[in-house]
Amino acid sequence: MIEILTPGQVDKARRTGALVGDILATLRQRSEVGTNLLDLDRWTAEMIRDAGAESCYVDYAPSFGRGPFGHYVCTAVNDAVLHGRPRDQRLADGDLLTLDLAVRLDGIAADSAISFVVGESRPAGSVHLIETTERALAAGIAAAGPGARIGDLSHAIGTVLTDAGYPINMQFGGHGIGTTMHQDPHVSNAGRPGRGYQLRPGLLLALEPWIMADTAELVTDDDGWTLRSATGCLTAHSEHTIAITEDGAEVLTLPGWQPA
Predict the structure, then answer these.
(1) Strand order, beta sheet including 80-82
(2) Entry's HAMAP family (predicted)?
(3) pLDDT one-digit tens code per residue, 84-100
């Protein structure tokens, strides 16, 4: 299903997106050396509840997972990149942490992910991975607008990732979003320009470039959810929810949004 939201629903999406951005910003501040991943999950649950919102993850049970996810935020450390299930693990200095969060507020969902290095260390390889996904995300957003096609966004994202020398996995990518978290159209992290669905005002997309340093192959943890690089290499993931507007694309999942 491809869902086109009304202007009133897009206004709700702005509030949901701001909530997601604010929660991720708070979690980033609290992600210190020694912080337990289960505490990050607990704090997320509290912030979602206090906002009167609901988690898109806790009861999420797609065909590729093992039962309901059962947690409120994805926490992926170092070689983990997607669907990182929180566990009893304390963060160490230099860990590359990805937080991925989706919530629904007033019936509209928003989804975002951030990667960053914990503590004082700034390993060059980690920083380059993170900066590359952020540049790819910016390129995808810049390519979005009414009349553009999904392939234009995929091509823009993939060009940045490929030019930086990283292999691209095509199993998971961006997606439509609206009254539910995962919808059509699928947005691959590489593609051919001029192909695919033509974007229209009112369409919401979650764009999410993610990479692994030296492989495109994933392996799944025993928890049935956490996806890691097959070689144990570092990974990174950046994501924003955007709304297609009459004259471009609006990023919804930035922290601190206030109504005009």
Answers:
(1) 80-82, 227-229, 218-220
(2) MetAP_1 (MF_01974)
(3) 999 999 999 999 999 99
| CATH label of the domain that carries residue 199 | 3.90.230.10
Q: How far is residue 114 CA from its own chain's centroid?
A: 7
Question: Is 175 labeled as ligand-binding?
Answer: yes
Is 100 annotated to bind a ligand? Reply is yes
Residue 111 annotated as part of some ligand binding site: yes
Residue 141 exposed, middle or buried by CB count within 10 Å (0-12, 13-18, 19+): buried
The answer to whether the annotation marks 208 as part of a ligand binding site is yes
Tens of pLDDT along 123-166? 999 999 999 999 999 999 999 999 999 999 999 999 999 999 99
In a domain, 37, yes or no: yes
- Domain tally, the chain: 1
Question: Which residue range(s) make up the domain with 163?
Answer: 7-251
Q: Assess if residue 260 is contained within a domain.
A: no
